[in-house]
Amino acid sequence: MSPAPSARGGFWGWVDCYHRGLQAVVRLLGFVAGAGLVVMMLVTTADVVLRIFRLSLKGAFDIVCIAAALTIAAALPYTTAIKGHVAIEYFFQKLGRRGRIVGDSLMRLAVLVLFSLLAWQSVRYGNSLLASGTASMTIRLPIFWVPYVLAASCGLVVLIKIYHLLHPGKALLQP
Description:
Elements: H1 10-52, H2 60-81, H3 90-94, H4 97-132, H5 145-166
Helix pairs in contact: 1-2, 2-5, 4-5
């Protein structure tokens, strides 16, 4: 009988801590994504209702755009953790066990590289927005931080893909 994860020490204790911490951050971002959806719904509904009375919600478009970007960014790690992305299984199932393992590992490495580059470029873009002082059109809200959130989410996707590489066939979270 193996010891409980909390009772393990050394390297495996760090690995268990890494997994639990990653799961907690991914769950938190899942709630952020849900909150972003609620914000988009409430702002859009309020804007439509106010237009009936010939009024409008100033900055509704800006708020919905920022909330949409944050929702997508926050949902990426959760979707990756539960292995919820769309996959084409037809050719994959034609491969043998070894071919599936190699193909799956190569795809995970490609995604790892892609999201690492996306995180890096998002930070560069956020830095350029910060340097130029770019703000939203209507309410003049600084938006340099949105690419930073996307970069953090892409970084989490990279960490999740490392977990998937080390634990083939196992999702980090269950939906």
